[in-house]
From TrEMBL:
Pathway: Carotenoid biosynthesis; staphyloxanthin biosynthesis; staphyloxanthin from farnesyl diphosphate: step 4/5. One of its GO terms (molecular function) is glycosyltransferase activity. It is found in: Cell membrane. Catalyzes the glycosylation of 4,4'-diaponeurosporenoate, i.e. the esterification of glucose at the C1'' position with the carboxyl group of 4,4'-diaponeurosporenic acid, to form glycosyl-4,4'-diaponeurosporenoate. This is a step in the biosynthesis of staphyloxanthin, an orange pigment present in most staphylococci strains. Its main location: membrane. GO terms for cellular component: plasma membrane. NCBIfam families: glyco_like_mftF. The keyword Glycosyltransferase applies. Pfam families: Glycos_transf_2. This is 4,4'-diaponeurosporenoate glycosyltransferase.
Length: 244
């Protein structure tokens, strides 16, 4: 079975990280390695990661793209999995990833993200996030890309790909503070299809809880539309504040 390296970028994620790492501890089969790449947390993130995770890496710069690339540099597994610190995966996630990428026609995969909180499940937002994996490439890229297998995956979908393909396409663009996963999908398409597997991961609803469902959905749509029209990363980031 190919070895899977799980890479978790963190910045002040003490409230969520311990639960995520607990979930990873019961994976069957287990991950080859778990790499927490911290961008300069001021809370207990590093302490939690050090006591629970396999390896903790300090990134000289903060930024998901930069931190995930740093983790990929250190990783030794044949498959790279990029996991947000507030996302829970099923206990057979490693088997799902290796089975998906056993098909040489698939270059990258991701899960269906179900956005949940302590007392609610955001069914409407989750449905929209599921659908935009398909409609976004249809709207903003030539149809031939869609029929070649282009799907746009996002961070809370737990993207995974072969390490060789990741570096062959250049990895994450370090200049992108947002939409870096969708950009990676575009760059991986020449190496195979992008697939959303029919399995669920649970992501925190903290952003929706703060903004409200309508505002959050409007921002997701607006940022996606601007990205599809070629807006700069600086412009996009203005609408997408960090929330912990």
């Amino acid at each position: 079975m190919p070895r899977v390296s799980i890479i978790i970028p963190t910045l002040n994620e003490a409230a969520a990280l311990e639960r995520t790492l607990r979930g990873l501890s019961v994976l069957d089969p287990p991950a080859w390695e778990i790499l927490v790449v911290d961008g300069g947390s001021h809370d207990e993130t590093v302490t939690i990661a050090t006591s629970t995770a396999g390896t903790v890496i300090t990134s000289e710069q903060a930024g998901r793209s930069i931190q995930m690339n740093r983790g990929a540099e250190v990783a030794t597994g044949e498959i790279l999995c990029f996991l947000h610190a507030d996302t829970l995966v099923p206990d057979d996630a490693i088997a799902v990833m290796t089975k998906t990428l056993a098909n040489p026609a698939i270059a990258c995969g991701g899960f269906i993200s179900l956005m949940t909180g302590t007392e609610t499940t955001r069914w409407g937002v989750s449905l929209h996030n599921y659908l935009k994996t398909y409609y976004a490439p249809l709207l903003f890229r030539p149809y031939r890309f869609f029929f070649k297998g282009l799907r746009l995956l996002f961070g809370d979908q737990v993207m995974f790909c072969r390490r060789g393909d990741f570096w062959a396409c250049g990895g994450f663009d370090p200049a992108l503070p947002i939409m870096e996963e969708a950009d990676l999908c575009l760059k991986l398409l020449p190496y195979g299809r992008i697939r959303q597997v029919n399995r669920v991961v649970q992501s925190s609803d903290r952003r929706v809880a703060k903004w409200g469902t309508l505002k959050a959905t409007a921002i997701y749509l607006y940022v996606g539309f601007l990205w599809g029209m070629g807006a700069s990363a600086t412009t996009l980031k203005r609408f997408y504040e960090d929330i912990r």
